[in-house]
Write a structure and sequence with these properties.
CATH topology of one domain: Ku70, Chain: A, Domain 2
Helix content: 25-40%
Strand content: 25-35%
Distance between the termini: 113 Å
Strand order of the largest sheet: 1-2-6-9-8-7-5
Low-confidence stretches: none
Number of helices: 5
Mean pLDDT: 83
Length: 271
C-alpha cells in the first residue's frame, strides 16, 4: 500500500512513528475526449487571458487575488519556507472528543495509519486506549501543502485518520434556499412516515451496495469490445497533404528566378 506521508503522532510524552496510507480510492471509470475527425485525444493548453499565448510552466507565478484584477505575487521560496516549517512538526493530538460530537458534514478523507520503525508498542497503546475510553483524538497535520484538522480513531485492528473540514469551510445553512421553517404535520402523517422508516430499517452491511451506473457503463464497454467496435486514432492528421502542398507552393514562390541579360542589337557597319 502506497505511503502518502511519514511522521510522528504525539500525545503527552508518547511519540509514535507512523505512515499514512489512503483508505479509499476513486473507482470511477475514466472516459477520454477524442477529436471526432481523427480519434486523437484532446489536449488542453495553458494560455494567457490577455496575450492569448501558450504559457510554459517556468513562466507561471503564484498570486492571490485580493480584489478584482488586483494580485499579490507570492514567491516560491516564501511558499516553500512556510510549507517546510509546517511539515517539520509532528502530528500533535490537541485533545480528545467523542465521535458522536462531530457531525458527518465535517468529514473529508480517510487514511489508514500503520506504525513506523520501532513504533508498534506505542501504536498498540494508543489504539487500545482510544478503544477503551470510547474517545477519538483531535489533531492537526500538513498534507500536500495544506494544513488539515484530523481525527484519529480505532478501526477494527488498526488506527484510522480522517481529515475534517475547518468550521469556516462548511457553508452556512442560512444560505440554503427555500428551506421551510415550520410546517404543520398531522399525527397520522408522522405515524405513517415513522412506520415506513421502521419497515425499511436494517443493519448496515456495506457490501450489499454497489455502484449500478459504473457497473452498467463497464458492461456497455465490454459489450462493444466483444463486438469489436473499437476505434483507432489516425497516425497522421488529415491536413498533412494540404500542409505538404502549401510547403511545395511556398518553395516555388521563394525559388529565385533566372535572370536573363538583355539582347544586344548588332551595331551597323559604317559605310
Amino acid at each position: 500500500m502506497h505511503t502518502v506521508w511519514k511522521g510522528t503522532i504525539s500525545f503527552g510524552l508518547v511519540n509514535i512513528p507512523v505512515k499514512l496510507h489512503s483508505a479509499t480510492e476513486d473507482r470511477d471509470i475514466k472516459l477520454r475526449q477524442l477529436h471526432k475527425k481523427c480519434n486523437n485525444p484532446i489536449k488542453y493548453k495553458k494560455t494567457c487571458s490577455h496575450c492569448n499565448e501558450e504559457v510554459k510552466q517556468e513562466d507561471i507565478i503564484m498570486a492571490y487575488e485580493y480584489a478584482p484584477d488586483k494580485f499579490i505575487a507570492l514567491d516560491k521560496d516564501d511558499l516553500d519556507k512556510i510549507k517546510n516549517e509546517q511539515e517539520e512538526k509532528a502530528v500533535d493530538i490537541i485533545n480528545f472528543v467523542k465521535l458522536e460530537e462531530i457531525d458527518p458534514i465535517y468529514f473529508d478523507k480517510s487514511y489508514y495509519l500503520s506504525p513506523g520503525d520501532g513504533g508498534s508498542k506505542a501504536y498498540a497503546l494508543l489504539r487500545r486506549s482510544l478503544s477503551d475510553s470510547g474517545k477519538i483524538g483531535l489533531a492537526k497535520i500538513m498534507i500536500r501543502s495544506k494544513e488539515k484538522l484530523a481525527v484519529i480513531r480505532p478501526y477494527n485492528n488498526t488506527l484510522i485518520m480522517e481529515s475534517i473540514h475547518y468550521p469556516d469551510e462548511v457553508r452556512s445553512i442560512g444560505a440554503v434556499p427555500n428551506v421551510p421553517e415550520s410546517v404543520e404535520l398531522s399525527k397520522k402523517e408522522l405515524d405513517t412516515a415513522t412506520l415506513l422508516i421502521d419497515q425499511l430499517t436494517e443493519a448496515f452491511e456495506p457490501e450489499k451496495y454497489t455502484d449500478d451506473y459504473r457497473t452498467a457503463l463497464m458492461e456497455l464497454i465490454q459489450e462493444k469490445m466483444a463486438k469489436e467496435e473499437g476505434i483507432e486514432k489516425k497516425n497522421q492528421p488529415d491536413n498533412v497533404v494540404d500542409l505538404m502542398k502549401a510547403l511545395e507552393e511556398s518553395i516555388k514562390k521563394t525559388k529565385p528566378k533566372k535572370t536573363t541579360s538583355p539582347r544586344k542589337t548588332p551595331e551597323r557597319k559604317k559605310a
